[in-house]
Amino acid sequence: MIGYYAKAENLKFKRTFSRKMIFIVPLINICFAFLMNPGFFVAGTYNWWSVILMPVMIALLCALSHQKEMKASNYNGIFSSPVHLHMIWSAKISVIALYSLASQAVFLGFMVVMQFVIPQFSSIHLTVIAANLLLWLTTLWEIPICLWIARKFGFISAVLFNMLGSIVLGIMSASSPFWWLNPWSWPIRVMCPTIGIHPNGVPLENGDPLTSWAVVPPAVVLSVVLFAILARLTRRSFSPAVDRKSIKREAV
User: Fold this and answer.
1) What is the pTM of this model?
2) How far is the CA of 231 from the CAs of 13, 36, 106, 193, in angstroms?
3) At what angle do helices 17-36 and 85-114 cross, to 10 degrees?
4) What is the pLDDT of residues 163-218, one digit of tens each?
5) Which residue(s) pair with 197 in the sheet?
6) Which domain range does residue 61 map to?
7) Three-state helix/strand/coil letters over 57-114
8) What's the domain count of the chain?
């Protein structure tokens, strides 16, 4: 059943900027890191990707999904149809999660190409592939909360919420012993052992405590659990009776 709703949601993104972002954002990230410091290309690229561009892209995907519904029928088309609203909400989350995964695959593909451009860039290895997969898993929780914020408070609120949360709160706590208490620090922290990069963008030395892989399992488990909780909680608000005033206010 969810597959049917997911296909319908995916069609809504046809010929939209959301699909183009899957290619544009990773390319911007790689070009920016290359221009900034090609000597630390891999470390710099993944640092920018985990701290800024990945959270911004997820927030934009969620905000654009909401914006498209607002422009189409102010959600009236969905609410007046004989459909399961919780399934539609789950489908929205699933499609954005797949787009996020696709962006990771595109990002990895660009990294493969770059090894032929930068002579000192070593070939793609398992840790780099693991980094992309871990970034996807540890940012899944951002999707339902950004969708909810976009619908409740609007386009800009969702983008600022996720971007500032990652840049400010994520970096502040990612290197501390209490990193696990802050969801935004999870993707940043797992880059320490996989890529060897400090949350502040400086390459880590061999033997640094931050290079321990012990943080990876709890980060993944925490993210998946929080994702499931937020997906369940936010879908309860997806109804014609909830947030009606905020939707009408944004439509004006």
Assistant:
1) 0.89
2) 21, 37, 26, 29
3) 30
4) 999 999 999 999 999 999 999 999 999 999 998 899 988 888 888 999 999 999 99
5) 203
6) 1-251
7) HHHHHHHHHHHHHHHHHCCHHHHCCCCCHHHHHHHHHHHHHHHHHHHHHHHHHHHHHH
8) 1
